[in-house]
Design goal:
Layout: E1 8-12, H1 17-26, E2 31-36, H2 53-58, E3 63-66, H3 72-81, E4 87-90, H4 96-100, H5 104-110, E5 115-120, H6 135-141, H7 162-185, E6 190-194, H8 195-200, H9 204-208, E7 229-233, E8 242-246, H10 250-259, H11 274-279, H12 281-292, H13 297-307, E9 311-313, H14 317-322, H15 324-328, E10 332-337, E11 341-346, H16 369-377, H17 381-389
Parallel strand pairs: 1-2, 1-4, 2-3, 4-5, 5-6
Antiparallel strand pairs: 7-8, 8-9, 10-11
Length: about 400
């Protein structure tokens, strides 16, 4: 039995911060019903510069129904569904749930035991609470951009969307925790997650490296100030022909010199002690670069493995989908794409020995509307047809 079998979630989320949370719960077995507006549905399905694949990556293993919540009838249907679910999740912009009259009080009135979870850029209170927020904004206001880039350059936006999906993982953990508590007490509760605050969780190491307690900002240091903890170019000369090496202990450094075929460097007065490796980092980096550029990034990774040095090749996003390690571990799945046929899709990292859920493709817009209304509200074909005629559902 999947770990969260029986947990039912009304998913009112869009884009990524909310959908990443509900997808994670679906991959543990929760029944996630994604409620979308008529027409285009979740904007992540594809508008302007947002590709359709983006929606596919964040909405697997869900069901989709279409409700027009701007109508009284659509809102009433949603509230009628609420007692059949354990969790209600939304990440609308500031004030939207109030305008739709589906705020915490309204949903709790329909289901007193509901777990009502909200993701907001800056939370539900405070001077920034009315500001809109997306991934990059959350990263900026959490300090992430201030530490990304070179010391003498401008801040840079990191590739990973941790402002969104990093928030989503914390939201999923909060929902599971509230659900466990509900199983003990029978009571629901309200969950609030601020994207800015969630993003600071991933900044703790960088913050700890700043001198003092809030007196000095953590610096930008590019690819790393230390030769033994840095990226190095490899043969090939491509934009991702690099390897990351982290020989951060004295033993690891000695092992690195063996991998290089230069064991004498471990005894070199310039590099024999940590202080020397710091003071002479440019000279040490030159020695390491002279070695790494003779081989491919994969060959360097094998040499590091042979001597026990932590390191790995810089894989690009295409490499991930064909990486032999991920493929052998069945982390790369195959799903049917409406435009491209069978395509690879990355799986879900947590593995439970007594719980397994097969990856399913993201649902077509409104594919499960009739199924949910019939099963949960007992509506017959005539009633559903009438709702369609009045454009309440789609």
């Amino acid at each position: 039995m999947p770990a969260l079998d029986g947990l039912r979630i009304l998913d009112m989320t869009q884009y990524e911060a909310g959908p990443s949370a509900t997808q994670a719960l679906a991959w543990f077995g929760a029944d996630v019903v994604k409620v979308e507006p008529p027409g285009a549905g979740d904007p992540a399905r594809g508008i302007d510069n947002v590709p359709r694949d983006y929606f596919m990556y964040w909405n697997c293993n869900k069901r989709s129904m279409v409700l027009d919540l701007t109508t009284d009838e659509g809102r009433d249907l949603l509230l009628a569904l609420a007692p059949h679910f354990d969790v209600f999740v939304e990440n609308y912009g500031p004030g939207v749930v109030g305008k739709l009259n589906i705020d915490y009080d309204a949903v709790k009135a329909a289901n007193p035991a509901i777990i009502y979870a909200s993701v907001k850029g800056y939370g539900l209170s405070g001077p920034y609470s009315n500001r809109k927020c997306f991934d990059g904004v959350a990263q900026a206001t959490a300090g992430a951009l201030s530490t990304t880039g070179y010391a003498d350059g401008e801040p840079l936006l990191p590739g990973p969307t941790t402002g969104d999906s990093g928030t989503g993982v914390q939201l999923a953990l909060a929902i599971v925790s509230a659900y466990v508590q509900k199983l003990r007490t029978g009571e629901g509760q309200r969950i609030e997650v601020s994207m800015q605050e969630a993003m600071t969780y991933y900044m703790r190491t960088r913050i700890s490296m700043a001198p003092g307690w809030g007196e000095t900002a953590a610096p930008r240091s590019g690819n790393g100030p230390l030769a033994v903890n840095n990226l190095y170019p490899t043969a090939g000369g491509g934009p991702n022909d690099y390897v990351m090496i982290m020989a951060v202990t004295p033993k690891m450094f000695a092992d690195l010199t063996r991998a290089m075929g230069r064991p004498e460097l471990a005894e070199d007065p310039r590099f024999a002690h940590n202080r020397g490796r710091v003071d002479n980092t440019a000279e040490l980096a030159a020695e390491i670069t002279a070695w790494t550029t003779q081989f491919s990034k994969y060959e360097i990774a094998e040499k590091l493995e042979a001597t026990g040095v932590p390191g790995g090749p810089v894989l690009d996003t295409a490499d991930l989908l064909s990486d032999p390690h991920l493929v052998e571990r069945n982390f790369v799945k195959k799903i049917d794409h409406p435009e491209h046929g069978e395509v690879p899709m990355l799986g879900w990292a947590p593995r439970l020995s007594a719980s397994e859920v097969e990856l399913e493709a993201a649902p077509d817009l409104g594919a499960h509307t009739e199924e949910v209304l019939a099963a949960d509200l007992g509506l017959d074909a005539a009633a559903i047809a009438g709702l369609k005629e009045r454009a309440v559902i789609g």
